[in-house]
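Quick check before the chapter quiz. The format below is the same one you will see on the exam, so make sure you can read both the input and the output lines.
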Amino acid sequence: MGLELYLDMLSQPCRAVYIFARANNIPFEFKRVDLLKGQHRTEEFQKVNLLMTIPALKEDSFTLAESIAILLYLARKFKTPDHWYPAELQKRARVDEYLSWQHTNMRAKANDLLCYKMLVPVITGKPVPAEKMQTLTEELNVVLNQFEQKFLQDKPFIAGTEVSLADLLALEEIIQNLIVGHDLFEGRAKLAAWRKRVEGAVGQQLCQEAHGVLMDPSNISADKFTPEILELWKKFYLK
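Here is the expected output.
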């Protein structure tokens, strides 16, 4: 049995793992796990990942959760080009710095805006209140400014002159809001130019393939969600 990757292309970290594997010609079997149907919560999937999250990796009897752990495992196992996770100490530290920061900043704020705009209308049948959207947008703008000023500065990429895992993970978080019609690159010339560089370095065609799911809002229509998943989300977003 070879390498299996359990993914849903609606998921930002899943797309990062998918793009990385494809860009580096890593052979794997794509195992789709439909998040909106709750397939990550089944007993069968828990045998792969007890945490009930994706992406997940399975290779014979070895299983692995968490996107960063999976990306680093793939980079080391398949000896991918150094720029993805540089050997040079300070460049690697720059990648690690972003990976440490992103969870409670970029990912958290981008995901909050996305989920409220995507899920609240599905759950309630009403749009998110304008005041709430303004607050979420302002909070996200703070971390986008930090990303530009702290992590990008005047460099082509986060770690310097070449694309890294940090850039790939950041791109997938920032681009995610396109599915709800919220373009975070609009009005941000530095961010838009960085996006073009990342997509160019990874491969335009591969990025278009991976991001195709974001261009069709019907992928998150109410009929895509199971009642169980809607009830689960209500606990988080209808407090």
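If your answer matched, good. The chain has two domains: 3-82, 84-238.
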